[in-house]
Structures
1.
Amino acid sequence: MATAKFSVLLLLLAFLICMADGQGLKVGFYKKTCPKVETIVKKTMDKVMAVAPSLGGPLLRMHFHDCFVRGCDGSILLNSTQNSQAEKDSFPNLSLRGYQIIDRAKSAVEKACPGVVSCADIVALVARDATVALKGPSWKVETGRRDGRVSISTEALTNLPSPFSNITTLIQGWQQKGLSRKDLVVLSGGHTIGTSHCGAFTNRLYNFTGKGDTDPSLDSNYIVNLKKKCKPNDQTTLVQMDPGSFKTFDKNYYTLVAKRRGLFQSDSALLNDSKTRIYVKHQAEHFKSSFFKDFGVSMVKMGRVGVLTGSAGEIRKVCSRIN
Ligand code: HEM
Ligand SMILES: *[C@@H]1O[C@H](CO)[C@@H](O)[C@H](O)[C@H]1NC(C)=O
Ligand SMILES: *[C@@H]1O[C@H](CO)[C@@H](O)[C@H](O)[C@H]1NC(C)=O
Ligand SMILES: *[C@@H]1O[C@H](CO)[C@@H](O)[C@H](O)[C@H]1NC(C)=O
Ligand SMILES: *[C@@H]1O[C@H](CO)[C@@H](O)[C@H](O)[C@H]1NC(C)=O
Ligand SMILES: CC(=O)N[C@H]1CO[C@H](CO)[C@@H](O)[C@@H]1O
């Protein structure tokens, strides 16, 4: 009798701990099994970022793309096979790069503790370290994710937000992932670093509604600038999203959006909802900004989306293929 009561109590306790951790994730999950993992990943990233800081953008973006499709389960890293086309080879992957950096970090980690650390966790750690290397905020990354065994190209199209989305579609898409309007406006701030292909926004410059017009929600002086960089139908030229400081993680994204200079319709759309608009204006206008702290909080939240934990999934040996 007493033992039964005790086991119920234990079960309840285990359940509560699980809930508080965000479905089994926790900071320092590998403390006993791979105590050096974060140091090893950081060392790899420090080396990479010292010579190729432009990889910071795609490596931050990679965690986002992983989490929005089948949860943060490393499915973005899987190669296509003969029978199935993977997320990697879908249209929105365009310009995602840096897969070899994940592989490099994974190899280094495998040397120290083989078969212990998931590729999904490495992606999450790399996103943080990339942000820090570009002078952005740091946050404590929860670990304990397991790797998925499935990656389907078409799921990237249906789950990833499009740069042509309006605010209603964006809010709905984020809500479906359990993320709020605040998370949306905060994490869009990731666009303070990196570059975009012209194709993601030229519709706003040349033929917005099919009448040879421009997007009225984009600053007309800015349009003149952008037209110099992107000719109609140019899909390949790269443009800095936060011109002048695209290799520095700062709060300037909000200054741009507030001035109607957000590059994508999805950036400008943040001015079309009262809550996201207030956040944009606040970050733009106040010297003392909460953005850095908010970014860490929302990244941790995004890092919990749809994760596999416990004995679900696997720990991949090589990040680009299932075991
Ligand atoms: C709100 C929904 C979002 C949309 C519609 C969106 C869309 C895009 C698009 C179209 C690009 C340009 C890709 C290219 O043409 O090369 C881009 C780049 C980027 N995005 Fe987002 N994004 C969103 C949210 C996020 C989030 C949540 C993050 C991370 C926290 C993020 C981080 C980045 C970064 C760092 C780049 C630059 C990549 C590079 O330098 O290659 N984005 N995004
Ligand atoms: C996955 O594809 C990349 C790029 O094509 C290649 O370098 C890598 O070796 C592939 N991985 C596996 C396990 O075949
Ligand atoms: C937002 O976009 C969706 C999908 O394209 C569309 O159905 C909806 O009418 C748009 N909403 C507004 C307010 O423009
Ligand atoms: C603008 O779009 C309309 C409708 O899609 C098309 O008929 C027209 O040729 C386009 N104009 C230019 C300059 O591309
Ligand atoms: C914002 O809303 C206005 C009016 O409803 C609309 O004309 C405009 O296209 C919207 N802008 C964006 C970027 O969604
Ligand atoms: C980096 C990468 O894997 N890019 C692929 C994205 O998807 C297209 C197909 O839509 C491939 O051609 C690219 O190689």
2.
Amino acid sequence: MGRFTLKCLKCGSEYGQQYRLTCDNDDSLLRADYHEKKLELRAQPGIGRFHSWLPIQEELTTEAGPITYKSEALARELGLANLYIGFSGYWPEKGAFIKTCSFKELEAHPTMQLLKETGGKAIVLASAGNTGRAFAHVSALTGIDAYIVVPESGIRKLWLPEEPTDSIHLIKMAPGNDYTDAINLAGRLAKLPGMVPEGGARNVARREGMGTVMLDAAVTIGKMPEHYFQAVGSGTGGIAAWEAALRLRADGRFGDRLPKLQLTQNLPFVPMYRAWQAGRREIIPELDMKDAKRQIEETYASVLTNRAPPYAVTGGLYDALVDTDGTMYAVTKEEALEAKAFFESLEGIDILPPSAVAAAALLKAVEAGNVGKDDVILLNIAGGGFERLKEDLTPFPIKPVATAENPDVPLEELVI
Ligand SMILES: *Cc1c(COP(=O)(O)O)cnc(C)c1O
Ligand SMILES: [Zn+2]
């Protein structure tokens, strides 16, 4: 018995329960239509609680999951009465046990489970660092092979809370290649027999995993927040939050107003911000990311530097922003560093660079009056607790098995 149907948002084609990234007729995103219309929490410690709206058969038993708490210190400083923090990372004192320290692990668990349930043997993905770490961790836990392509700048982010296993195949790209070059190489590897591409925003399991941050907030608060703050590189988390909110609205118990997406990128690389400001569905590279590689090198939170985000596609970030009356911000490195210190001293937990960017956007929004003092706000701190984790364990670095000079190298050299 299936638990969901995959539906194309453009032509309405329906597909059964499968690991499928695209429609046969067009390039729209597919969306899962769950047979369970009401969210029914399962007795699992982590993300498995939200099994109602995860595209897998078996309940996930991992302790990794999102948590939501009401901010006191930061809220007081900002004069906000209802500021909630969605925290994905390691913070045992708060019940947060994501040992790879970002919400990418929320994607990795359901994706690898779906891969297993649909007979897949090996997954291929590109990562700026955080996604690779998350999938490497789940590969170590499950033994499922993962081929992970990472630009040089991301290699130091590839560590594990446990001893790396042979199921992890880390491919490093030589200096001069960025995250998008890694995406292109991973795309070629994924066409080899037996390999399944992770699929980025096209991967429904990935979006549902990220969407649990919104679900956790809604069940903790008792209703959907009015504002949702997140730093975006691909925007998949924003799309996921929107889709989760659509399901919560249809459930009926969590309010009928969709949270306003308040999303941010970091300067100088802000293509989605520029396109949105110009009122465009299309990103125009010459206007929105001129000299992209140089911009990316100068960007503080490199996880937020995707040159081909799912912005224009049907069901993508542009549609999400339009439907939620959303806003976008661009913050500087200085603003992000200031917000990082401010957040960490007040809330008492370390946060990753992209989450500092998200916090900086919240500060800007308060200043600009884009949120009301009594509004219910969810700040998605999508990564943090790495310093906290190091108090409890010593991370193991993952060693690359091969280095690729560029995205077009012969593949035989890499598949080890
Ligand atoms: C990946 C990542 C983001 C950006 O996610 P999107 O895919 O663009 O939604 C933000 N914060 C952290 C910590 C991340 O790892
Ligand atoms: Zn279609």
